[in-house]
Amino acid sequence: MRLIKQPGPPAPERIQWVEARGRAFAFTLEAGLPLLEAARRGFAAQGFAGGVMNMQSGALGPFAYVMPALSKTGDNAAFYSDTFRPAGVTQLQSGAMTLGQRDGAPFFHCHALWLEADGRAGGGHILPEETMVAEPFVVEAFGIDGAVFLGEPDPETNFKLFGPVACATSAAETTSRAFALRLRPNQDFAGALEAFCHERGITHAKLHGGVGSTIGVRFADGRIVEPFATELAIRSGVIAAGAGGTLEAELDIAVVDYTGGLAEGRLKRGDNPVLMTMELVLEVLA
Q: Is residue 248 part of a domain?
């Protein structure tokens, strides 16, 4: 399996996780608000301080983002580009967001693909401080209660990263058992999820959200993304018994690499190691 050496020592526990409760819902992001505030309000209206969400369309402007890039200093295995600020309204095509807390305030981690006003297709890491909702649009969300994604320094990667930590429960209405997860580097994405579920007797689970990176990409149909530094959003994902009876993760993703290459499709099981992180929520169905 492909490996990328990180600057710091690997943490012994390769999956950071918290068991919680949660509920799926849809809401409309309000126009004229910062994307961060619009997301916060949507979750708060349902009684949740945070969670994850998926976007299949939407209009943003002003809009700011960064792309994956090579590290110039060697302090990280990969880094970010300079900030891009395309003019006009950018139309989202696919994306995922983790809404949590950083430095004592709401914050998000969001990767997406989009079409800019001049027709250019792009993708990357949306900046919460500078991005506004241009027109109302509906998103699919999953709120979590009893866990929060908290931005904390990560010695292994030398980044401040979201990871789930336990928190007090609230009065939010929940319907499902759920796990907030963060996968650490250099483990296969699908394999880690399959093993996690197997160890807990989970036979059917659905992914919600899903923001992170892999070391390049190998798709189930044979396509390959060679550049090692990527930013990835999960479009959909399920874990269930395959034809042979063992658990199999079906993960459909959208990705941009550090050269600007864009791709979408289903990941090949066993051949997509995590680069920096992978955040998501697993809803237990059986």
A: no
Is the Cβ–Cβ distance between 95 and 65 less than 8 Å?
no
- Alpha carbon distances (Å) from 87 to 54, 80, 91, 139, 209: 24, 21, 12, 24, 28
Of 147, 140, 199, the C-alpha closest to 177 is 147
State both tokens at 77: 């295995």
> In whole angstroms, how far apart are CA 267 and each of 55, 127, 214, 232?
19, 26, 11, 11
Q: N- to C-terminal Cα distance for the chain?
A: 31
Q: Which domain holds residue 132?
A: 21-143
- DSSP annotation of 76 reads S
Residue 254 lies in a domain: no
Flag whether 190 is in a domain.
no
- Convert the pLDDT of each residue in 100-139 to its tens digit: 999 999 999 999 999 999 999 999 999 999 999 999 999 9
50: domain CATH number is: 3.30.1330.80
Give the count of domains, the chain.
1
pTM (two decimals): 0.97
Angstrom CA distances, 23 to 28, 159, 169, 176, 275, stand at 16, 30, 14, 6, 29
Contact present, 16 and 184 (Cβ < 8 Å): yes
Could you tell me where the DSSP H helices lie in the chain?
Answer: 35-45, 189-199
Q: Looking at the domain assignment, is residue 1 inside a domain? A: no
